[in-house]
């Protein structure tokens, strides 16, 4: 769990409290401010979770590619060349 996830959760909870207080007191401004805080918190929490998912899933792949490139530089260059040609042909529509 990273700072974005924690901060988003805090904003979401704070927004729920504001909305509840707004409902209890009849203060529409406080109520809508709470809903906005909840939305902001949810977005930040989702961003943090996505960041964690990328870190957990992509980082090992990047580390593997780096290790492969160090151990087999010629094979890595050949693979990069083939991928480059495939990308160029895809972009050109062939």
SSE layout:
Elements: H1 3-25, H2 28-71, H3 73-92
Number of strand elements: 0
Number of helices: 3
Strand content: under 5%
Rounded to the nearest angstrom, the radius of gyration is 24 Å
Spans where pLDDT lies below 50 across 5 or more residues: none
Round the mean pLDDT to the nearest integer and report it.
Answer: 91
Following the backbone from N to C, one meets helices and strands in this order, namely HHH
- Classify the helix fraction into a percent range: over 70%
Terminal CA distance reads 44 Å
Helix/strand class: mainly alpha
User: What is the molecular shape?
Assistant: elongated
Describe what this molecule looks like in 3D.
- There is one protein chain.
- By secondary structure, the protein is mainly alpha-helical.
- 93% of the residues lie in helices and 0% in strands.
- It contains three helices and no strands.
- The relative contact order is 0.12.
- The mean pLDDT is 91.
Quick overview of this protein structure:
This protein is mainly α and 94 residues long. The protein is 93% helix and 0% strand.
């Amino acid at each position: 769990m990273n700072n974005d996830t924690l901060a988003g959760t805090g904003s979401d909870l704070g927004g729920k409290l504001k909305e509840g207080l707004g409902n209890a007191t009849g203060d529409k401004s406080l109520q809508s401010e709470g809903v906005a805080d909840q939305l902001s918190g949810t977005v930040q929490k989702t961003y943090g979770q996505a960041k964690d998912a990328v870190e957990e899933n992509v980082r090992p792949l990047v580390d593997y590619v780096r290790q492969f490139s160090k151990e087999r530089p010629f094979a890595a260059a050949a693979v990069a060349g083939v991928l480059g040609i495939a990308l160029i042909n895809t972009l050109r529509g062939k």
